[in-house]
């Protein structure tokens, strides 16, 4: 496959529960392709779209009462299951309220066992067993710069050779994120940056978006997994990353926070030799393919419990 086709190919992912390869229905796809592939679009990206002010403006629109009329058509178009929602659809006064909706606890059961780590969010997850030796990030040949991503060279040394799960949330997904393990959590540290899209349509062209975007880093000290790092990453039209937890003792599956309007992602890092990733996830990750799975489902276990 030549480079232009590989860059612009449809986004495919593996649906873990169905065991099928599926093509993503991309919200705002025409705009994304224009911004990242068209010369004039790239100019608008550099001058306007990547700026925080642009995303704040769009988030403001989603907070206005007139945005409520977008909710029902959105649910119908993307086949969302309103039975999972904690509130009635009519209770959402704005599209943003609907966007960061809570779900019933029964909608996202948490895989049991203190030795089991779970996905922190709904989404399409790119599984990397050892990010130090991997070049299968959305397109072959890209390398992950851990030092730039964490903005802390000493911390990067602690995670060198570890595992990475990039959980990419689309606008159609449940947009609250949760703790993947139990332990003691520090307060989040904000790292300022731009707000590029985190769609593969953008990441295929530059993986550096992940360490150029605004993000928030949280360290978790887990009795089973040791040091675990979570990084919430903002993206175009994300109005904000909102923490809802209190630093200290946390339990796997506890809510950590939510994104207001826009696609976004959460990265979870495990130190080398601490996480045994399930074989089906490793198989897809070795091909550079994302896996769709809901929050709370199993990623793998601590190495010494396999």
Explain briefly what this protein structure is:
The chain has helices at 3-8, 29-37, 39-49, 52-62, 71-78, 95-99, 146-150, 153-159, 200-203, 209-212, 279-286, and strands at 12-15, 20-23, 116-118, 123-128, 136-137, 139-140, 163-169, 176-178, 183-185, 189-191, 215-222, 226-233, 241-243, 248-250, 255-259, 264-270, 275-277, 290-293, 298-302.
Number of domains: 2
The Rg value, from CA coordinates, equals 18 Å
Q: What percentage of amino acids are in beta strands?
A: 25-35%
Outline, from the CA principal axes? globular
The biggest sheet, with number of strands, parallel, antiparallel or mixed sense and barrel status, is: 11 strands, mixed
The count of helical stretches stands at: 11
- Ends distance: 38 Å
Q: Round the mean pLDDT to the nearest integer and report it.
A: 86
- The protein's oligomeric status is single chain
Return the structural class.
alpha+beta
Helical amount: 25-40%
Helix/strand order? HEEHHHHHEEEEHHEEEEHHEEEEEEEHEE
How many E strands?
19
Note poorly predicted spans: 45-51
